[in-house]
Amino acid sequence: MSQTEVLNNSAQYIKGVGPARFKILNRLGIHTVRDLLYYLPRRYEDRRNFTPIGRLEVGNYATVKGEIIKLNLWRSKRGLSIFKTAVGDESGALEAIWFNQPFMKRYFKVGQEIILYAKVEKHRQVQMNSPEYEFVTGKDSSLHMGRIVPIYPLTTNINQRYLRTIISRAVESFCSYIPDALPYVLRKKLELLPLTLALRSIHFPQDVTARASAYKRLVFDEFFLFQLLLALKKSHRAKQAQGIVHNMGGKLVENFQKALPFKLTPSQEKVIKEIENDMRASGPMNRLLQGDVGSGKTIVAAYSLVLSVQSGFQAAVMAPTEILAEQHYLTLSKLLLPLNINVGLLIGSMALKTKQETLKDLKSGVLDIIIGTHALLEENIQLKRLGLVVVDEQHKFGVIQRSLLRKKGEIPDYLVMTATPIPRTLAMTIYGDLDISTIKELPKGRLPISTFGVKNEAIKDVYKFIREEVASGRQVYIVYPLINKSQTLKLKAASEMYNKLKQEQFLSLRLGLLHGQMASGEKEKIMRSFKQHKIDILVSTTVIEVGIDIPNASVMVVEHAERFGLSQLHQLRGRIGRGPHPSYCILVSDPKTEKAKLRIEAMLATSDGFRLAEQDLDIRGPGRFFGPAQHGAPELKIGNVIRDMELMELARGEAFSLVRSDPNLRAPEHALIRQKLRERFGSENIGLLSV
Ligand code: ADP
Ligand code: MG
Fold it and tell me: Quick one: which of 413, 411, 347 has its CA closest to 359?
């Protein structure tokens, strides 16, 4: 049997795993011997020295060892069953309490030794609430006692001692069968542990340092493999790709620049250079343009569109909402029509006839630029010569099916834009095979936005303030979390509030209503009116969250602000502060949960999108930052992109340099890496390595 075959053996191969236990292990995702070896501890307990019970500190987590002195099971007046034990050592005693688990009494006996782990509390007495526990027995003491002991994630009908025992058996017998794919030279250079040793130490570390080194090695492996995949994808694309060469000469770009209503910021100049270089090259461009809300990404996109058209190509722009697509259509038409560039719009809810005409004009080449939503992808559109695809607000799209617009023949250049600023390493992880350009600063002359948190009771004052702002010529957004009142949620909703505000608060003002369920023509009309200042107050839902650009709007009121996510609030606030007027963001809320409070506080503390993104990560945890299917990147099991950021950078550097030096991983010392890549990422990616 080869080494791999042994590792692929059923976990039943291990003594103590029968068919019944095997089923339980399956629930933990453990099927093979390898799975057992890679089933990692959730935490550790240092059982070399226990904290004496008499010296526990309230509020800290602690592990104690003691003897069961007393047992007590009873029912409270409200019918709750309470199981309480007193556990003591030489220094003192504490109470351990479990609610509604009367069956536990069966397992506990006075005089038995027990280990408890929980947060230390003090009510009448020092206490642990539903602690994790493990009985101490005479046998196996060297595995479960007197050392740093691994604590694994469990499921019902399986306990720590059992799992620890069989994992220890697997480690003893099969750890050395795990092939170490990391080339020796690289391992030495980075001073990483051999894999066998790392696996042994991650389960049963000698000390804290040994655990840290083991963790580092395993996380490096995981990140390295992931970055190798990205590096391979990128080099594969560069090789195979017959990209488009955009020719840079011509009057269009020059005229466009001359007609710009403002001077570009240094960041805009810089990213335009980067984009230009990509577009001029023969390989296809794959670039992510990051820039905070209001940093001026649209004009950069417009510039690249003009470049493409000047070179005789057509270009497409995709936006996540119809409203935004329409806005781009208006903005870009205004900028580009004077240059004789024809711009078209294609969205799902358009009249069939208009749509057909647009499709015809695209095919014949009459239209130079097409702007749309997903409809662009869904329609069977044919372009004469597609040169560039721009995707705005990429984070709103979810997984982008780049291939759809990439029909046969030449591969168009590709520019994605996002206003979700994320730490660089995270961006590299998520958009890892894209090149990244960042707009760092906002255009000059912007006044800072003042943000206020206001309680529901003070809403009258807010309305008064709105009237004053409108009187001085400004426009206002008021955003609600719902379109219509719902039965279950007692929240104000946009439709109802629109009528109410019109009749009760803003009698002489011009109000508009905008939400996602309105017909497209209706939405467009409202947006146009707001833009032309025929509407003073736009009552809306989060449909205006992304992209909308009305410089005269200076007030953003968000009601029930506690219902919105941090990035949503930041995006909403980004709708104001776009012109020369002082702007005000007013968050009306009654935060009940701790997280909601933190979000509002973060909004009041800073308007820096980068910092907010980091706080968002803090509040939510990195896993939830992007929806799971958002980026299509494989899930990381061991490492954490935020906490282990430096390791990710290290792994990236090494992975990319390895692929540069051995693009198909042909060298004998890379054979195992090849194999691992296949195992990890499956057959669809095998094609990346031409055999
Ligand atoms: P976003 O990056 O959020 O998409 P936009 O492209 O909508 O930002 O730009 C925000 C506003 O800033 C727009 O009104 C735009 O015309 C303006 N703007 C963009 N670049 C500059 C600049 N260099 N100087 C002044 N205003 C600018
Ligand atoms: Mg934008």
Answer: 347
